[in-house]
């Protein structure tokens, strides 16, 4: 929140991967899929995020008002879409901060599956190459 309050940033992503804090270790394949999707998104957006799929994102109000009417995705397609859309705003200042995170097991309520990863891949392509 501080990068926005201080005027340094327009958008702040919380990264589960940039932190010195202790964190729960869970599924390797989820981690690998996240790294792949984030890297692929970075190639198409020319950003250098470490955790595009994070649920922790903060935006200045004017940025939200600018992109909200265009948003189409649901579920796990939201992260690739919003990342693609903000990357197309010229001179936008995007910051990333480490966040604490305690992942859930499927028994505890984790809902993402491999199908969501495939959908996210298509969303990255769609919103980076075929939308303005």
From TrEMBL:
It comes from the Bacteria. The keyword Methyltransferase does not apply. This is Glycosyl transferase family 2. Coiled coil: none annotated. PANTHER family: RFBJ PROTEIN, UNDECAPRENYL-PHOSPHATE 4-DEOXY-4-FORMAMIDO-L-ARABINOSE TRANSFERASE-RELATED. The keyword Transferase applies. Keywords: Transferase. GO terms for molecular function: transferase activity. InterPro entries: Glycosyltransferase_2 (IPR050256), Nucleotide-diphossugar_trans (IPR029044).
């Amino acid at each position: 929140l501080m990068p926005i309050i201080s005027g340094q940033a327009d958008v702040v992503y919380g990264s589960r991967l940039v932190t010195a804090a202790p964190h729960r270790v869970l599924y390797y394949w989820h981690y690998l899929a996240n790294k792949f999707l984030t890297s692929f998104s970075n190639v198409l957006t020319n950003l250098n995020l470490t955790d595009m799929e994070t649920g922790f994102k903060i935006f200045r109000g004017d940025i939200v008002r600018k992109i909200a009417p265009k948003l189409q995705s649901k579920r796990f397609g939201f992260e690739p879409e919003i990342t693609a859309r903000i990357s197309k705003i010229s001179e936008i200042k995007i910051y990333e901060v480490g966040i604490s995170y305690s992942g859930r097991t499927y028994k505890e309520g984790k809902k993402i599956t491999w199908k969501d990863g495939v959908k996210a891949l298509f969303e990255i392509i769609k919103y980076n190459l075929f939308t303005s």
